[in-house]
Design brief:
200 residues; alpha+beta; Four Helix Bundle (Hemerythrin (Met), subunit A); four-stranded mixed sheet
Amino acid sequence: MTEADIRRLIAAERSEMAALLRELSADQWDAPTLCEGWRVREVVAHLTMPYRYSTPRFLFELAKSRGRFNPMSDRLARQDAAALTADELVATLEANVNHPWKPPGGGYEGALSHDVIHGLDITVGLGLDRQVPAERLSVVLGGLSPKHLKYFGVDLTGTELRADDLDWTYGSGRPVSGSAQDLLLTVCGRTLPAGRLRTS
């Protein structure tokens, strides 16, 4: 895929998520997601952080957290979720569907992964039946590597993940099957609702 193709997929994912978020109730905004300790509003605050923080501000906040990204990310998500309304958070996402943000070292594929994974944190956490289009999942799954497993603290030794709705496998050993998006969440260390994966 070309860079323009990936950016098209990013814009589509952000647009669809913004439309979905517009339909959520107040209770759903305060419901838990698959991101441990984060409600929907914290996840959306995190998703929109790159559009709201300049590079100097980001570096300042990172320094406040002694260079530790995860503690900084958690602190800012909670802070911004408390300061911004649901409408303000969605409006920020809507205004930035074509924003050129890329995670350091991740390229536009990394930006797509960021949006897809956190979108699933929300929809699966809420029990919504949203299916991420196969074209987007293929890009995200195709970019997985051992370093991602290490980052998320996931050990797949002796396990082969097999998507039953996409031509994708990862690892070797005892087969674990499920939808491509559920397997993606597994790789990211998320705890899925019971019964979504099958072992052979």
